Amino acid sequence: MAKAANDNQWLRRLPLIVGSVGGTLLMLNRLLTPVVTDSQARADVVGVFLSAILILTTLLWRQIQPVPPEAVILEGEEGFELADGLSEDVATELAWASHLLLTNTVTRSLVAYYDGQTLMRRGILGPNKEVEVGPIMERTLTRKQPVYLVNLKLYPGKVEFNYLPENTQGIICQPMGEKGVLVLGANAPRSYTKQDESWVEGIADKLGASLDTQATREVKA
Predict the structure, then answer these.
(1) Separation in Å, CA 87 to CA 55, 164, 213
(2) Contacting residues for 79 by C-beta, under 8 A, at least 6 apart
(3) Are the beta carbons of 170 and 188 closer than 8 angstroms?
(4) Using one digit for the tens of pLDDT, what is the confidence trace for 46-58?
(5) How far is CA 52 from the centre of its chain?
(6) pTM of the model
(7) Helices (H), 78-126
(8) Higher model confidence: residue 64 or residue 71?
(9) pLDDT-derived band of residue 3, with 50, 70 and 90 as boundaries?
(10) Is 160 in a helix, a strand, or coil?
(11) Burial class, 122, CB count within 10 angstroms (exposed 0-12 / middle 13-18 / buried 19+)
(12) At what angle do helices 2-32 and 38-64 cross, to 10 degrees?
């Protein structure tokens, strides 16, 4: 995979290299020619034009198809942990939802937190088992709005996510019901698409509804 990526990089740069070399050779040829004929002048104009086209092709290609963010291998062991005391329905739903997110998005690690309890950890597990609510998660719980940290290393507040792998690149904190948050970690910065975000929101809403219903039943009981 790395070799294929390097080959693609060279292919993208090839027009720039050819255009730059061609333009340089035309300039040297013009400087070293004592007498320039009309036909040579016309050929030089065509050559400069073609070199410029090749260089512009590379620049436009980079804008249309930017280089994708580089992924890393997250540090930690893969696992699946559920809290004790969950109902069979909730445990099954957490397992189903986490499987969908891990297999259909760039998520490599995720944690489900609800009402002061870590309900689930799955994927590449972080060093700490329990979630300690920090400012970013508190904001998600209070405002009921998701927080997407596109490049985690740029945020000083990343220290609160010590329950995710240390080299996690991007994070989504998604509200999950009235008292919960679904935290997802990716192995590449700026890797979640709008479609991914919509997918995460829908699954978190479904999980939150189930957890809110169970919490209401427990209060009535």
Answers:
(1) 62, 25, 12
(2) 121, 122, 123, 125
(3) yes
(4) 666 676 776 677 6
(5) 35
(6) 0.70
(7) 88-104
(8) 71
(9) very low
(10) helix
(11) buried
(12) 160
